[in-house]
């Protein structure tokens, strides 16, 4: 009979957070569509922004794509954000 | 979160990421499983719902979650029961597997207290010392923590001898075979340079890439187990490679019979210091005898390569970053004596100057176009020996170097007598890394 040791490392505690509060409506709100690049995101994300604007004309949909900059500042400037990234 | 396609494997990867990024209740909108999907408008209602539907109580919860901590003692049983236990339930996804739980798929050596204690004799480090698992290509930045004892458990399972422990610990320091959540093929390769290789009987000659050598082979197994058990690598979940890596922990020793600096010296160590070099990336080696290379060749050129052939190989390689040239010792001597390359730096400079493609091909390459490559190079000083603003400003049909800069090219000497050479590309992220083995003695 063999008594064997466990080979696995352990994960430290993982802090988790609840979801960001939802908007009650997209009307009158600014929704950012941030394209972080990769794959066909340069086609999908602008299309998503256009489709969302058409679906909710009263929403201010802002499309963002800047490989040089971090998206954080743009995201924080919006009431909600859709962030797209493909490998 | 908007999933780009409703694939169970991708969903599992996403759910695992949600938990480890600390947003376990992240909402998902699942689209059709179509890699050519460009119109997301059919899913807009669901997307808008995800943005506006009020949060549930569960979705609002915050706190800290402690993943289960594995016990020190796993189980007691017969040899067959031990194998069955470590293999686990052989989890499959709809698109791959099944995969074993705590092994690389093959049998393991039972890690008893006695075997682990013997393994720990191979290092002066305390069994209780904790190593933060450097999740270099990590999925979420989670730093697993393992004791030296845990690493020794994996070394026993892999069939390592105690004298291999310093190399095992160096491999653990790099992360082992962890792959990537990306669907790209990811390889992991390790090369030992310095006197330690001979001390533990590694192979650096004939068949160095292949099986048969206890040290090379068991270190490869250890690298695989370290990825699984010390980094939480899960095939099909945190490792999303569609095909898998052909160099999955491949480990060999550099042949010190070289006319140039050995790798330890090339990477800033002394000749009597032992180091482990780690590569991880998208490509494995191709032998130099390649019918696809468009360059003048003769039999000698095919066997021993030539500068022109090597340059053409990299010009035509699918992945050009982090290139490696590998020579048998006799071929290395030919490159010095016949072709006049007196140093590694001269080879690097030659390849960088002569492995070329057009500016248009360069900037339209997927890895360059989608990763901000043009902007990065445009910010570099003109006239420097690296892709820089000068190259960006050229017309599309102008020739530019296929490799970022000469120092990205690594030269390895390994193999038996006679002439042979090989090449590889696709080892990005600033790799390789050099880790001291001596620090782990």
Describe the structure.
The complex is a heterodimer of chains A (87) and B (441). Chain A has 87 residues and is α/β, with parallel strands linked by helices. Chain A has a domain at 34-62 and 79-87. Chain A contains 2 helices and 5 strands, in the order E-E-E-H-E-H-E. Chain A has a 3-stranded parallel sheet with strand order 4-3-5. In chain A, helix 1 links the parallel strand 3 and strand 4 (60-64). The longest helix of chain A is centred in the middle third of the chain and has 15 residues, at 41-55. Chain B has a 4-stranded mixed sheet with strand order 10-9-11-18. In chain B, strands 12-17-13-16 form a 4-stranded mixed sheet. In chain B, helix 12 crosses helix 14. By secondary structure, chain B is of the alpha+beta class. Chain B has 3 domains: 2-60, no CATH class; 85-280, no CATH class; 287-424, no CATH class. Chain B starts with a strand and ends in a 5-residue tail after the last strand. Chain B is built from 18 helices and 18 strands. Chain B has helices spanning 8-20, 44-52, 57-60, 79-87, 113-120, 148-158, 165-174, 196-199, 214-231, 263-266, 299-304, 307-316, 329-337, 344-354, 359-364, 366-369, 373-378, 389-392; strands at 2-3, 29-30, 63-65, 73-77, 91-93, 96-99, 130-132, 145-147, 187-193, 248-253, 275-281, 286-287, 324-327, 356-358, 399-401, 410-413, 421-424, 433-436. The relative contact order of chain B is 0.11. At the A-B interface, strand 1, strand 2, helix 1 and strand 5 of A face helix 2, strand 3, strand 4, helix 6 and helix 9 of B. Strand 2 (14-16) of chain A pairs antiparallel with strand 3 of chain B, so a sheet runs across the interface.
């Amino acid at each position: 009979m063999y008594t064997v040791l466990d080979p696995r490392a352990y994960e430290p505690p993982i802090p988790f957070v609840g979801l960001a509060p939802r908007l009650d409506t997209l009307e009158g709100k600014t929704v950012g569509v941030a394209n972080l690049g990769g794959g066909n995101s340069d086609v999908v994300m602008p299309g998503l922004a256009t489709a969302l604007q058409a679906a909710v004309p009263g929403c201010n949909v802002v499309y963002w794509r800047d490989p040089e900059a971090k998206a954080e500042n743009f995201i924080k400037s919006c009431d909600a954000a859709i962030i797209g990234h493909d490998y | 979160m908007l999933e780009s396609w409703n694939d169970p494997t991708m969903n599992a990867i996403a759910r695992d990421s949600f938990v480890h990024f600390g947003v376990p209740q992240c909402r998902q909108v699942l689209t059709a499983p179509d890699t050519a999907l460009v119109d997301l408008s059919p899913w807009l209602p669901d997307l808008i719902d995800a943005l506006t539907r009020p949060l549930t109580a569960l979705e609002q919860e915050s706190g800290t979650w402690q993943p289960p901590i594995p016990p020190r003692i796993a189980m007691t049983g017969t040899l067959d029961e031990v194998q069955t236990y470590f293999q686990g339930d052989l989890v499959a996804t709809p698109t791959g597997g099944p995969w074993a739980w705590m092994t690389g798929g093959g049998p393991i050596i039972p890690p008893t207290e006695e075997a682990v204690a013997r393994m720990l004799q191979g290092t002066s480090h305390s069994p209780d010392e904790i190593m933060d698992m450097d999740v270099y290509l990590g999925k979420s930045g989670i730093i697993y923590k393992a004791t030296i004892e845990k690493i020794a458990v994996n070394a026993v399972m892999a069939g390592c001898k105690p004298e291999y422990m310093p190399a095992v610990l160096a491999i653990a320091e790099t992360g082992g075979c962890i792959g990537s959540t990306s669907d790209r093929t990811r390889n992991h390769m390790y090369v030992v340079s310095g006197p330690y290789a001979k001390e533990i009987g590694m192979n650096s000659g004939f068949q160095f890439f292949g099986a048969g050598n206890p040290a090379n082979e068991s270190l490869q197994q250890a690298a695989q187990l370290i990825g699984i058990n010390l980094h939480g690598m899960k095939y099909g979940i945190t490792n999303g490679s569609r095909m898998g890596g052909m160099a999955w922990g491949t480990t060999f020793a550099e042949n010190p019979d070289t006319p140039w600096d050995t790798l330890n010296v090339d990477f800033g160590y002394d000749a009597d210091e032992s180091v482990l070099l780690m590569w991880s990336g998208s490509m494995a080696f191709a032998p130099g005898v390649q019918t696809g290379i468009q360059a003048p060749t003769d039999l000698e050129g095919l066997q021993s390569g030539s500068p022109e052939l090597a340059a053409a190989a990299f010009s035509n390689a699918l992945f050009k970053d982090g290139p490696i040239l590998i020579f048998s010792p006799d071929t290395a001597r030919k490159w010095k004596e016949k072709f006049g390359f007196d140093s590694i730096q001269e080879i690097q400079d030659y390849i960088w100057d002569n492995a070329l493609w057009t500016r248009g091909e360069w900037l339209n390459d997927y890895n360059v176009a989608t990763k901000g490559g043009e902007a990065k190079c445009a910010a570099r000083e003109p006239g420097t020996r690296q892709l820089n603003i000068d190259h960006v400003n050229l017309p599309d049909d102008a020739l530019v170097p296929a490799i970022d800069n000469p120092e990205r090219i690594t030269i390895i000497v390994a193999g038996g007598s006679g002439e042979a050479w090989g090449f590889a590309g696709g080892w990005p992220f600033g790799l390789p890394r050099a880790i001291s083995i001596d620090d782990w003695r």
